[in-house]
Structure formats: C-alpha cells, structure tokens
Amino acid sequence: MPKYRVHLPQLDGGIFLTDGGLETTLIFRDKLELPYFAAFRLLKDEAGSDALRKYYCSYATIACTNGFGFVLESPTWRANPDWSEKLGYSNAALDDVNRLAVTMMRDLREKFQTPHSPMVISGCVGPRGDGYDPGQVMSETEAEAYHRQQIGVFRETEVDVVTAITITNTPEAIGIVRAARASGLPVVISFTLETDGSLPTGQSLREAIDAVDAATDKGTAYYMINCAHPTHFDTAIATSEPWVKRLRGIRANASKLSHAELNEAPDLDDGNPRELGGQYADLLSRHPQINVLGGCCGTDHRHIEEIARACKAAS
User: Residue ranges per domain, the chain?
Assistant: First the structure.
C-alpha cells in the first residue's frame, strides 16, 4: 500500500534529497549503454538491476547519514509509449517495467527508511518529446490521454506521488496534472529552463506556473526546476511574489552550459560540486520553502553530498 499518498511529508518542511543525474551517471561514469537515455531498460536483467540498486543506495545513504528525507524517483523517465516503442516494448511489457521499477523503489525504502529519514516513492514521468526541445506541442487533452497509461499503472502500485521531470511546455504539464488527479495521485511538475530562465517555448516560469495552476485549480502539490544551472534561473525567481512560493524543488545541472552546448559536448561537464552546494544553500536562504534538493545532468553522489553538507550547515 502507498505510505504517503494521502499526505506528502516534504510538504511539512525539512530537507528531502533526491538522486542526481541518473542517465548521465550511468552512461558516462558507469559506461552503460542507454539508448534514448532509457534507464528503465536496465531492469531487463540482474546486472542492470544491480547497477540501478547501487546507484540509488549511494544517495539513500547520504540522506540517512544527514538525517534528511529522500525522494526515491523511479527510473521511468523514458517509460512512456513513444520512447518504449522505439526500444521494442509492447504496451503490456511497458506496464510491467513501470511496475518493476516501483517495486525496486519499495524495496529500497524498506531497506533504508528510518524515523529521521522518511522516503517517498515517486513515479517519474518524462516528456513525450525531447527534454530540451518541446517539438510538436500536444494539446492539453492529448497530453492527458498520452500520459494516462503510465500514471494509471502507478496508481496500482506503492507510488506516493507522480513527478513529471524536464517538462518543456504548459499544455503537456496541464495534461499530466489532470491525468494524475483523475487517478487520485498527487503530482509535481518540474520545468526545464534555458539559460535565460525561461521554458524552451520562451514562456517565463511565472507564466508557466500561473497557467498550470489556473487550468488545474492548483492541482499540483508543488513545482520544481530541473536540467538548468542555478545561474540560469536565479534572476527568474528573485521575487517574493506568490507564484514563487509554489516552487519547492531544485534538481540543477552540474554544468553552466546551455542545452544546445551540452548536446554538442563530447565529454561530461560535471562542474564544481562544492560551488554547486554553496549555490543551493544560497537559494534556500532566499527561498526557505524550497526543500526538495537533488541533481540533474552531470551531477552524481559528490554533488548531492556537497548540497547536503552546505544546506545542513546553513539550516
């Protein structure tokens, strides 16, 4: 049974960590093949499953060591129909792999959770298109129908919350929120931003959050930012206006490069972990409602350790 679906503990405050850049770590550091960045493919055999377990264990350990909560984000960012079809998965096989991913998160929670480190299971939803480019934007209705399959599977598992990561446009965000709410699941939307702090569509973060809230009657539990460096969005959120209070999570890139530059880079840019930790602590000092902290492209356990250290010292 879901443990926190009725009430998410991160809404009560306290720091909750997440993992870092799952796909970039597995590809560049562990030298694993992930066609289309589809980490869920590793669940097909024991060797791949072991690699995933090892990855998550390192982050859960950091959370427990610091007495922080932890969000177990399932490795299902690409486990939606269009991407799985490219990899030869039938709809039934896709449903099975989404269930299997959540089962792994449940087992990890049973292993690591303590009274001081609550662990929330999040069913990760990714965009239908590319995480950097909105491409052909769906209507809100199309987006709701498209994401209904994956979210429907999550409803029947131990998933506490659906988190849609690297969302590039508001119609898709609105569709995801509606699909999650129709399934009785709390939902978080994490927008990706460009170097100017705007969505890839050119829409401002404020406009995006206001649009989704207006269309869904504030149907999200909260919002996040991911796949952007703090220097990209610091100015965009430098306000005390009410919409900023809806922002509770950051999963930043290690690199200050733009998405276009990252796409062309032959090597992984892992930035400066200690500097990134300091930037998180500074963000929290100005936006104390932000308490879900993790990483995205180029980040690994070193970055999360530094984020934990800096934010713990500043709290």
Answer: 9-314
